[in-house]
Design a protein that fits this description.
4-stranded antiparallel sheet; globular
Length: 134
């Protein structure tokens, strides 16, 4: 398996598992005790960011094309629930999602950073606010 991993994060609730995203357009859930992939999903676009939700029951996955996919990860299976496209209206070539950070104490409110110099606040699947950088 030739993975070019772009992102990894431990499951906050069960440290025996971690999630990874890679340039081969796949997101994987890994089992440390079993030393293998327990589930994976093909996004058909490069994965540039991935993280678990604070409760460990979901994951956010960002892509090079600016999409943000929301997965249910209960039982360490990847089941896509929603997709949010966060591209800038000006059709910027810099669409790549670069990171996620959940608000303290929240399992739905998250900051999403992207290569178009914007930080977006989403709550569930709704865009709440957008900050523009220089």
């Amino acid at each position: 398996m030739d993975l070019k991993v772009t992102y990894i994060q431990f499951n906050h609730v069960d440290g025996r598992y971690f999630i990874s995203g890679s340039l081969d357009a796949k997101v994987h859930i890994w089992s440390i005790p079993d030393r293998q992939v327990v589930d994976w999903s093909d996004l058909h676009e490069m994965v540039t960011a991935a993280c678990y939700t604070p409760d460990g029951q979901g994951a956010l996955v960002g892509s090079y094309k600016g999409s943000c996919r929301i997965y249910n990860t209960s039982d360490n299976k990847l089941q896509q629930k929603n997709q949010i496209n966060l591209q800038n209206k000006k059709k910027s070539h810099q669409k790549k999602i670069t990171g996620f950070q959940f608000a303290p104490g929240s399992t739905s409110e998250v900051l999403v950073t992207s290569a178009d110099c914007r930080i977006r606040v989403i709550d569930g699947v709704e865009l709440v606010h957008k900050f523009k950088g220089d």
